[in-house]
Amino acid sequence: MKMVENGTFVTAGTEVVKDVYCHIDGIVEFKEYNDIIHEITIRPGEVHQLANVGALKVDEGEVIKKGTVIADGIKAKATSIVTIMDSSMDDITIDDLDEELDATLNLDEDSISNQPIQILVRPVQVLKVEQKAVSIKFNTTDELIDIVPVTQLQYKDGARVRNLDGSTITRTSLVLQMQGYLSHLKGMVELDSSNNLRIVVLENLIVRREQESNSKITSSLQTELLVKDGDVIEAKTPIAKTQVLSVNDGVASINDKEAESRRLLLTSESYERRVKISGKASVKKGDFVKYEQELSDKGDKSTTSGQVISVSKGEVVIRKGRPYLVSPGTMLLVDLGALVLRGDMIASLVYERQKTGDIVQGLPRVEELLEGRKPKDCAILAEEDGVAEIETDEDLPRLYLANENGRTEIKYAIDSNIIVHDKQKITKGQPLTSGPMNPHDVIRLCGPEAAQQYLVDEVQRVYRSQGVEIADKHVEIIVRQMTKKVKVLDAGDTKLLPGELVEVQTFERENAEVQKNGGTLATCEYMLLGITKASLNTESFISAASFQETTRILTEAAVDGKKDLLRGLKENVIIGRLIPAGTGFHHLSNANEEKEREARKRAVAQRNQARKPSAILEEIEGMFGTPDLAVDDNGIIDEE
């Protein structure tokens, strides 16, 4: 139970809490938690009342010397520190400060500075901390080892020091200091028989521990200590050795005698295989052979893979080995003839997978195909038939194409891979390097059918990778429009012009007419146009004008006097007629009416042929009546 309030100035002997009395004068400060007092602090000093903050002539928290004027009529009696204890604005919280000032007080900065305050002048004790001089004698075996005194503070800045039976503020310690090449070592304190303190600098050496196992790899290694416990050793003295013991008998082989050998190959007869041959050997010493490879001219085959180490009459000795198949472009991590252990990495395979991505990433590929653009890093196609020949020059393969016309080198990008083999037969238009094919090269080398099939397959591959099924006929209609133009190379006896772009049907019709007359046929080159360019180069100006550049197309059509025969789907859709496709075709939709009309015409014709002239005359008279005829004296008939 508190007998005084928090922040009250009390004198010595005042009961602060029931049955608890203070021993010094000062300000009471309670530390409570859940209404339970945990600590009581008495801050000694003098309390003074000031009219406002401006009357204080020193800074709060500043340590002032004796005789310093704190305010008018107030001087420091000893070395002290000034703390502002109370202010009329202390009860206003930060969150409600603006609201309180505007609603009730209506104060500005001047009015706030005019509020009365209370200050506490507390005496302080200044302690000077200096490095303590320590005299210590010791002997060392190295100048880099030293013992230095270090004085350390036991409290942080601003920490509260509780003085019950005296409190330790500083402590001086002796620190072992090692410099230079000894900085990574540690020391151990010992007490010898004469009660002298001794510091021993130790270096820890880790000796490989033997593993208890029946494995040949672990049991062939043994470590032996060369020193005993308590021996005094000098620097660079060997203390242990590791021996590698041979598991079986064999012959030692060192690959490079000049260089420092780290690995040694021990060959044994248990790794050799003797193969009997009946004919003359077709292999020689040092050759590498595969399983079931022929070893003689009689067809004797090898029973294992490995390297031939000796060839004699009727026998071939093969050191067993394991072949590894690697793809072109593999990065080898070992050199020829290098020794390897089990688990060593000998090669790194480079895999190149096709980037499918999602449908959003595939749509630019579809646009690239349908616009007829040249893809980036496209494959190189063979210009003619031949045989591929690959030669290695400075670790770089060079590709040649040989045929009856000679031998041609194929230049390709350094980041491309050759996808054909040496001595492989090559056909015209076959890809020689990796990458997507250029559709313009395909139509030039392989013809329009191959280009059409390539475009359809590539477009469908994008959609099918996402599980989207689209019938080929929809893509084929678009591809047909892209490949319907040809470029005239030689006009022959036709009406065409060299370099003119015409449709395939027009070109074939002109050639058919010239062929009937026995003239020279025209030659052409098949062209591949993108869907945008193909739409602007149609025979129908109505179809082209409804797509892009309407003014230019209609102006050219008017100047040239063009006629639109409305033979396409789009033209009929624009005009509003039934499109000539499927069941909407005119001859199919009106087939029954045409048959009935033809049947009526045939019936009328047959009926007209079977009737007599008199019957026809009677029918006419029944329709128009009988004409009245009169005969005069001269025999002339007059019609009344």
Question: Could you outline the blueprint of secondary structure elements for this entry?
Answer:
Layout: E1 9-10, E2 15-17, E3 20-21, E4 26-33, E5 36-43, E6 46-50, E7 63-64, E8 69-71, E9 74-75, E10 80-87, H1 97-105, H2 109-113, E11 117-123, E12 145-153, E13 170-178, E14 186-191, E15 197-202, H3 216-219, E16 221-225, E17 240-244, E18 251-253, E19 265-267, E20 272-276, E21 288-289, E22 306-312, E23 315-320, E24 331-332, E25 347-348, H4 359-370, E26 386-393, E27 396-403, E28 406-410, E29 425-426, H5 439-446, H6 448-464, H7 472-482, E30 485-490, E31 501-503, H8 504-516, E32 523-526, H9 531-536, H10 541-545, H11 550-560, H12 569-575, H13 586-589, H14 591-610, H15 613-624, E33 629-631, E34 637-639
Antiparallel strand pairs: 1-4, 2-3, 4-5, 6-11, 7-10, 8-9, 10-11, 12-13, 14-15, 16-17, 18-19, 20-23, 21-22, 22-23, 24-25, 26-27, 26-29, 27-28, 30-31, 30-32, 33-34
Helix pairs in contact: 4-6, 5-6, 6-7
